[in-house]
Please model this.
Amino acid sequence: MEKTPGQSSGAFVQGASLSPGDKLVTWLEAQKVGGEAKLLRVPVVLAKGQVGWALQGAKLGTGGDAVTVKLDDTALGIGLGQKARKCKDAPCAFLVEGYWRGKQDGTYVFAVVKAGEPLAAAELAKLAHAEVEGESGN
Model:
């Protein structure tokens, strides 16, 4: 059975560490099959905007050298900005599934296709690796 874009099999395997950022970017760039991006799961931390939370300037993880990205959430029914209204304090973080789009107009882009509820700081602290959709063996 073929998957539609954004449909997760639920079988993710551990990938690269979120730090150092340069090694994470190298790993993200390599996550392709037949020229198509693989589905990834990563923790993202939204940037504090002038009003609310911003998708531009978000970070993959929390380290000092975290990769800065622009999140494209156009595939979501309810955007991350709206979901982030539940965040009262920093960090405002989510575990998201999506696709690495590389650098566009000088900024790294991550296209989000699935996002849950905001993560508590303790949950975020436990997330140290990106994940890639893998074969379940079934």
Remarks:
- The CA atoms of residues 47 and 58 lie 5 Å apart.
- The helical segments are 21-30, 80-83, 121-125.
- Residues 21-30 form the longest helix (10 residues).
- Residues 15-132 form one domain.
